[in-house]
Amino acid sequence: MALIKLLILDDDDEYSFNLCNYLTHNYSDTLLVNYCSNAYKIEEWIKKVDPDIVLICEKYYNQVYNYFNKNLIVLTSGTNNVGLSNVSSIYKYKDANQIAGDIINSFTKVGNIITQTKEKTTKTVAVYSASGNVGKTSVALGISTICSYSGLSVFYLNLEQFQSTSIFFSSNIEYSISDIIYYAKERDKNLISKISTMSCKDTTSNIHYFKEANNAFEINELLPQDIKIIIDTIKECGQYDLIVIDMDSQLNENTIRIFEMADEILYIFTDEEICLHKTKIFMDSINILSDLSDQNTFFAHKIQYVANKVSKQALLTQTYYNKVSLCNIPYDTNFLSSRSIIKSIGGPELINNALKEIAKRYLT
């Protein structure tokens, strides 16, 4: 549902068309965009569109100002125009996502509130392990990729302190999850529009995500209520079928809050002795929490155990853990956790098939 009526008035017809097309394609939930490059029809278009914001080139500014001045933003080419030095402006040749962000921020900073109608029922899957180096991120991204290629709209939310998002995705957008954390803590009423503006979309897999934090310590600033606001707001966008949360290995209040909000929890483990030991401690801790508080019984039954890097000779197949695992992901010595996860939908065929078995739970 388009909520902000935007009119682009620029004397460069090709630029206007391309910007209008990009914003319409990528921000149709927030922006209703029209453009005009004919100076003789500007007044006609303004009356027709009745815009909330007019994005205008310097050449047409004085012509338009006389009959529309409530929210004019100059598309500047970088040349110095002394007469317009105090007018709100956007550099027209910067990234179109940043232009969209500036437009939406201009609309909301004067008190306008954006609300959206929820269009989809969103499932939330948390991917967790008490141990490191178990392939948690590879599983989270593999599932995200398979679901995205299957037609779901997927948001990959990395909440690890030390994030590896930039290894798998690349984006030149200036915003990151650091900005989302800030606005969530400020309880910004327009967080829903900022999430649409400040998130990225991978061109290969179509997965949506936030760029990793500017500073690893910023993730530690998140409180359980901040996490709830961020997840709830992503759901309220109404754009996503599935949210896959790549979690940190700590077991704390933030972890419990995510567990409570998730529809399903995938616990990843390997057959290494240290990992099995930590997994046993985790299981015991969850059982203790469930006994102490009825609240925690709401997520204990959501946990599905996934054995990763399983070889034919693995002792894992003869242990208790094999009996409780949802799926065994085979070990492949030639597979490295890299961007190939995105390009090949999960890696080698055996691994890919195992991930598909998990992903199909979310495709119905």
Computed Rg: 24 Å
* Fraction in beta strands: 15-25%
Q: How would a textbook summarize the main sheet? A: 8 strands, mixed
CATH topology of the largest domain: Rossmann fold
Shape: elongated
Query: For the largest beta sheet, what order do the strands appear in spatially?
Result: 8-9-7-10-6-11-12-13
Class from secondary-structure proportions: alpha/beta
How many helix segments?
15
Listing every helix as H and every strand as E from the N terminus to the C terminus, the arrangement reads EHEHEHEEHEHEHHHEEHEHEHHEHEHH
CATH C-level class of the largest domain is Alpha Beta
Helix content percent band: 25-40%
In angstroms, what separates the terminal alpha carbons?
25 Å
Q: Give the full name of the CATH homologous superfamily of the largest domain.
A: P-loop containing nucleotide triphosphate hydrolases
Total DSSP E strands: 13
Q: What would the average pLDDT be, to the nearest integer?
A: 83
Weakly predicted, low-confidence segments: none
Count of all domains: 2
| CATH architecture annotation name of the largest domain | 3-Layer(aba) Sandwich
